[in-house]
Amino acid sequence: MITAEERRTMANDIELDQIERTVSRARSASKHDVDLVGIQTNVSTREDTVPDGGYGWICTACVFLINAHTLGVNSSWGVFLAHFLSNSTFPEATQLEYALIGGLSISTSLLISPAVGFCNEKLGTRPSLLIGTALVFLSLLTASFATQVWHLFLSQGVCFGFGLGFLYITAAPILGQWFLKKRSLAVGIAASGAGFGGLVYNLAAGAGVESLGVQWTYRLLAFCTLVVNLICSILLKDRNSAVKPQPRGFKNIREFSHISVVLVILWGTFTELGYIVLLYSLPNYAQSIGLTAQQGAVVGAVLNLGLAFGRPAVGFFSDIFGRIDVATAMTALCGIFCLTIWVPAQSYSVLLVFALLSGTVTGTFWGTVVPVTAEVVGLQRLPAAFGMICLPLVFPTVFAEPIALQLASTSGYLSAKIFVGCMFLLGAASTWALRSWKICDTEKNEMAGSEGQGRNLLWLTPRRLFMNKRV
Predict the structure, then answer these.
(1) Which residues contact 360 (CB under 8 A, 6 or more apart)?
(2) How far is residue 100's CA from residue 394's CA, in Å, rounded to a whole number?
(3) Is 338 domain-assigned?
(4) How confident is the model over 371-404, as pLDDT tens digits?
(5) Is residue 305 part of a domain?
(6) What is the pLDDT of residue 367?
(7) Which residues have a Cβ under 8 Å from the Cβ of 353 and sit 6 or more positions away?
């Protein structure tokens, strides 16, 4: 006979057993769900680890050589320009037409940046680079057969610009994918290729024009670019599969609505108006003060020597002292050099000093624009934003040299020198404003994270302009 007390004990035991089985099943299901959620979370939130080196240094060497055999070769146009002007090679051509050819090559490369971005998206990096390689070779080869000035417009101007665009616009953003802490240094080293290439090809073009003639000098340049750019196009690799950049093309016009992108464009516009003039006019200016054509070529080569050593140094210090800070200081310094050294320069020695000093800082925009843009838009938006930044720079690259030659012909080179110096100072003012925007953006993000507010902060204030902060 089971007593009432025993029945209550048995019921409690059964109830406890059921509860334990229910809890055990719940725990198992919960653990299974947590595991699944954990796996999904890990997959979705897995962040790309930037190598910050490794094969990135091979890519740096490739971009260095591409810059040397595109922008470096293009800078030798100053030597050809001085020869054409002094020898009346094309009697029907005017100074303005010659000036437009040099600017056209760079402006065309910038004009097609959305098309290049579309090609990169549809065809990939390597096919785009190979297209550029073929176009650069074809442009220099056909320039050697030019008998009228419009032949040079199509070959040295338009065709070379297309090739430059496919090579430079495609290659430039790739290094940002391979580096983080050393990004500015890597980009600076790669950008110095334009300086080393300009140094070598200015001297080579000057010697070749005198000994071999213009035609064979062009042909030698054509085959040099073909070999080197072909090798680099094969070796250069992107990390698009890991970074997953936003698509590039004409639809990224919305980048123009961002104040940070507009300020970078203003920086590029002002500095290009000065940079193009220095790059192309120094050999001709040297001859205008009584120096020989060979001395003018040396002055152009020394400017490129400054570019070659200045860009890695600027990149190195940018990683240490702040990318926007260094870009602002170096751009302003170039304007100061123009106004204090170039304005009174009337001798070969002073001109060489100016070419070397200004060369170290005159290419600051192209040596730092990728790291600076990455700072303000991020890696995913970088390719799209970079393409949109290049597009408006068509206008200053086309008209910079014609403006300088027009100023020089009407009121002497003094007005052209002052114009160049002021353009660099205005460029520095643009990056100074960009610095203020970046400080405001950082403060806004911090306030939003801690207090959930901060969206309506004014970004251009005296406090932020003069704040002692690394940016």
Answers:
(1) 306, 307, 309, 310, 313, 314
(2) 12
(3) yes
(4) 898 888 887 787 778 778 888 888 888 888 788 8
(5) yes
(6) 79
(7) 341
Domain limits at 308? Answer: 55-451
Has residue 129 been placed in a domain? yes
Question: What is the DSSP code string of 91-136?
Answer: TT--HHHHHHHHHHHHHHHHHTHHHHHHHHHHH-HHHHHHHHHHHH
39 has pLDDT over 50: no
pLDDT, tens only, 156-166: 889 999 999 99
Grouping H, G, I as helix, E, B as strand and the rest as coil, residue 188 is helix
Q: Residue 89 and residue 216: Cα distance in Å, rounded? A: 15
Evaluate if residue 227 carries a pLDDT over 80: yes
| Cβ atoms 63, 168 nearer than 8 A | no
Q: What is the mean pLDDT of residues 31-39?
A: 39
Residue with tokens 């796996």: 39
Domain of 339, CATH number, reads 1.20.1250.20
Query: Is 466 a domain residue?
Result: no
Paired tokens of 359: 């060369």
Query: Among the ranges 10-19, 23-32, 201-210, 436-445, which has the highest mean pLDDT value?
Result: 436-445
SS3 2: coil
Domain count, the chain: 1
- Is the distance from CB of 286 to CB of 406 less than 8 angstroms? no
- The pTM is what? 0.73
| Closest to 368 measured CA to CA, from 420, 397, 331 | 331
The answer to whether 260 touches 434, Cβ cutoff 8 Å, is: yes
